[in-house]
Amino acid sequence: MTDDGTLQNPRILLIVSGGIAAYKALDLIRRLKDQGCSVRVILTQAAMQFITPLAASSLSGQKVYSEIFSLTDEAEIGHIRLSREADLVLVAPATADLMAKMASGHADDLASTVLLATDKRVLIAPSMNVRMWEHAATQRNVATLKSDGVLFVGPAEGDMACGEYGLGRMSEITEIVAAVMGAVSGSTNMSAPLQSLKGKHVLVTAGPTHEPIDDVRYIANRSSGKQGYAIAHAAKAAGARVTLVSGPTSIPPPEGVKHISVLTAQEMRDATMEALPADVFISCAAVADWRVTKVSAGKIKKSKARPPQIDLTENPDILTEVSRSSSRPRLVIGFAAETDALIQNARTKLSKKGCDIIVANDVSSGTDVMGGEENTVHIVRASGVESWPKSSKSDVARKLVALCAGELS
Ligand SMILES: Cc1cc2nc3c(=O)[nH]c(=O)nc-3n(C[C@H](O)[C@H](O)[C@H](O)COP(=O)(O)O)c2cc1C
Asked: Which residue in 57, 89, 92, 379 has a CA-CA distance of 20 to 30 Å to 175?
């Protein structure tokens, strides 16, 4: 156990059930080992239709288990031993079938018996067709499992192997690893980061920009800076060196974070470029798209003639510039605040700006996202979209930081 309560080499018992996402479990084993976990694998009979015990044991470096009636293993009451010699039982992918067995307490194969016999936390990553996920039976099982204390990561929304689109995709491997590390840290918050960004530089922009019209007036937007500040705070808590380039907000800078105050988009661009290199760039600021071409000196006076005409010029695109820069951070994440066609616009932004991830959030009136305490975000990658449930901006920040840590590992 380390000072921050983290298990040093968590022992993960990974149960792979027979879904189409089973092949991803092989990458999951590798990623968990990268995090210092030891991984012991149980394959259901159906899982062995998708991956071989040989592949799982080669990657885990351990024997793979699949038979309940194995004379050699059961001589030591193997199903009990397996469940006890773990810090966490992870089911990934979790099929509808295995979830149903878990919810009703079946124990008719090694996986379900271990799940019934375990005294450890159980984390599951469901993966199935959208109709299977939405079926009343599955939803009843989800409710039962949640009330039994089973932890969930996902499922995500996105394109499915069967050609359909919807909720039911297994969460990204980085998400699952982050959830595992949150669970073994003993945290009640599944996404709480460990010191997983130690030694990394995270550069965050936050808040609105103010574009002056004259000496007293300016163009602004409703951004409060709360989401960006929460990200800076979470990255700091995860051990990163953090630079926060912030437009005008009323929030005190998080402790231990290098805070650079700016006013305009141009100033934000300059401060951001100067703060590079970084390992991660998170562009959360609501940067004004345009500035006033000719800022008037003094205060424009009201006159009987027509109101003053304000001519606008496009501001620099900070996200694109960082993405295309020669000192591009390994991970570049942009936010897309949209009022229409959220996912479609986020996908366009992702390819146009050259970043790795767009965090899309709906800021139309009534959502109370701008200035509010909560956010509903969609993680848009070239490979698909993952929708996170509505949660506090701090929880979104912690999850995003955990995701960054996973991506960097
Ligand atoms: C090609 C194929 C893909 C499947 N994919 C899934 C899936 O993604 N999720 C799921 O819940 N079931 C899926 N199934 C159905 C399960 O394999 C089936 O319910 C099986 O009994 C699950 O056994 P297990 O839960 O013991 O592993 C799939 C079946 C086939 C033939």
From this structure: 57
